[in-house]
Amino acid sequence: MKKTFPIKVSNNAPARVVDAIKSELRKYLKRERKKKLPEGVDFWDFDCKVGENAEVATELHVAEINEAIDHALAEDWDGVYFEILAKPGIRTHKPKS
């Protein structure tokens, strides 16, 4: 998913718009995680980028999405760009000490 979400909407408070963005992203992640896994894959992993637009988007972990949206609101951005791409993930075991 590559999408730019507007934060400043004329008829809604920015806090409500941010809540709607977070909800839509959670729904997307949940929907992607439900897809059938390919053979030999343990889970769906995600490559995420966020920024004010596509040119300045920086990589982040999927767990940091909500913090990034809050940062965009605090910095008074007009919109926030998200790029979330699913990829297969394989669990690695920690070496025993």
Secondary structure elements and their pairing?
Layout: E1 2-6, H1 14-33, E2 43-51, E3 58-60, H2 65-74, E4 79-89
Antiparallel strand pairs: 1-4, 2-3, 2-4
Helix pairs in contact: 1-2
What does this structure look like?
The chain has 97 residues and is α+β, with helices and mostly antiparallel strands. The protein has one domain (2-89). It contains 2 helices and 4 strands; from the N terminus they run βαββαβ. It has helices at 14-33, 65-74; strands at 2-6, 43-51, 58-60, 79-89. Strands 1-4-2-3 form a 4-stranded antiparallel sheet, covered by helices on one side. α1 (14-33) packs antiparallel against α2 (65-74). It is elongated and about 50 Å long. The termini are far apart. The model has no long low-confidence stretch (mean pLDDT 94).
Tally of DSSP helical segments: 2
Order of helices and strands: EHEEHE
Strand order of the largest sheet: 1-4-2-3
**Gap between N and C termini:** 40 Å
Indicate the mean pLDDT: 94
Keywords:
97 residues, alpha+beta, 2 helices, 31% helix, elongated
